[in-house]
Structures are given as structure tokens and as C-alpha cells.
Amino acid sequence: LLLEKERLKRRYESLDLRTEQLTAREKAVKQKEAEVEQKLVALNEEQKALTEREKSFNDSVRQYENRSANLQRVAENLMGMPPQKAVDRLVGMSDQDVIEVLQATDKIAQENNATSIVPYWLSLMPADRAASISRKMLKIQPAIGQPVLAGQAGQGGP
Fold this sequence. Notes:
Structural class: mainly alpha
Number of strands: 0
Order of helices and strands: HHHHH
Helix content: over 70%
Mean pLDDT: 87
Strand content: under 5%
């Protein structure tokens, strides 16, 4: 009977030890699950941020494409006008807009293997405004695929 008690006692101790091990493993598994859940939440947030950045980038590209199309349309419209009327319209624009329209006009002329009307438009502008625009155009590096405007090639800064 004493031997049986000792055997049962060891069995209970073994079961208690096994229970403690299982409890520890369960605790470790729950801790790992919490870590995985936390990482999943972080990944979802990162995915949302990336999606938002991609959307923002696509919106910027769309705006640029719309601006490019608008600049080309304005340049084509001005090219279809008598030069003095076109210059009168250009003089009413900001310098940056004028420069972009002139670049678009040069690009259209280049694509059509034609002489650009930009130098003539500049000659019809008030001298101080034409000089200011020319100076700014010299500072601007043409975008890839953009032509170098008349007066830009081989010259230094102001």
C-alpha cells in the first residue's frame, strides 16, 4: 500500500509537472499569437499607408498629365492666333506659365519639324518681360524629352 501511495504521488507530481509545462506552453503560444496579431495590425497599417501613397502618386501623375495636355492645348491655340494677339495673351500670364507654354510650343514645333515661333513671340513682348522670361528659361533645365529652347544652348547663366 505504501508503494502504491508512492507511485500515485509520483504520478500526481508527474501530472502536475506536465500541467505546468502545458500551461507554460499555452502561455507562450498566446504570447506568440499576440505578437503575430500585433505584426498583422502593423502590416495592415503599412499596407494602408502604401495604398494611400500610391493613390497620391497616381493623382499627382494624373494632374501632371492634365497640365501637360492643357499646356499643349494652350500652345496650339496660341500658335493658331496672329502673333501679336498671342503675345498679348502671354503677357497676361505668370512667368512660369509663359515659360511652360513656350516650352510646349517649342516641343510641338520640334515634333512637326517646323521652326518655332517662340523667338518671334519673345521679340514682340515688352523688352523687360522678355528678358525676365529668357533669364528664367536659362535657369530651367529642360525636362526629359523637352527641347532646349532657342537661346539656351551653349550659354551660361545671367
